[in-house]
Amino acid sequence: MRRVLRGGGGRRYYTEAELERLRFISRAQAMDFTLAEIGQLLELRDHPATARAEARRLAHNKLEAVTRRVRTLHHLRDELRLLLNLCAGSEGQCPILEMKPKTVAPHSRRRVQSRTRHPVA
Predict the structure, then answer these.
(1) CA distance 62 to 60
(2) Residue 12 belongs to what H/E stretch?
(3) Which residues lie closer than 8 Å to 86 by C-beta, 6 or more apart?
(4) How far apart are CA 101 and CA 19, in angstroms?
(5) Is the dihedral of CA 14, 20, 26, 28 positive or negative?
(6) Using one digit for the tens of pLDDT, what is the confidence trace for 10-40?
(7) SS3 of the chain
(8) Which of 73, 81, 95, 101 is the most buried (most CB within 10 A)?
(9) Distance CA 79, CA 47 (A)
């Protein structure tokens, strides 16, 4: 954006096009786009005839990231609910303070692959 004109009291004056661009940036930030992604979207916006596929790709990637985060947040919510319930029913130390992972029924355990890195010779 160009340098913004300022009035006597330091007040900024924007053109309608600049206000629209600021609204776009604000909306994109609310949708969790990074500043780099917003920069890409703004560039694409300047060339809309050829930008559809790239704009869709950026939005699709953001949707996948948000979906992953929602899954993580749902898991976190469930863990916190469990800890709260365990703490409310506990006679001893509060499980919230112990932060032990919840016990999983044997039939619902998933095989976990090792993520140990081995040095390369």
Answers:
(1) 5
(2) strand 12-13
(3) 95, 96
(4) 49
(5) negative
(6) 788 888 988 999 999 999 999 999 999 999 9
(7) CCCCEECCCCCEECCHHHHHHHHHHHHHHHCCCCHHHHHHHHHHHHCHHHCHHHHHHHHHHHHHHHHHHHHHHHHHHHHHHHHHHHHHCCCCCCHHHHCCCCCCCHHHCCCCCCCCCCCCC
(8) 95
(9) 46
> Sign of the C-alpha dihedral, residues 28, 29, 34, 35?
positive
In degrees and rounded to multiples of 5, residue 10 shows phi and psi of 85, 5
Span 33-50, pLDDT tens digits: 999 999 999 999 988 888
Query: Can you tell me which residue has the tokens 């140990």?
Result: 116
How far is the C-alpha of 107 from the C-alpha of 36, rounded, in Å?
Answer: 45
5 three-state secondary structure: strand
Start-to-end CA span in the chain (Å): 52
- 76-112, pLDDT tens digit by residue? 999 999 999 988 887 888 888 887 665 544 444 444 4
**Alpha-carbon distance 55 to 61, whole Å?**
10
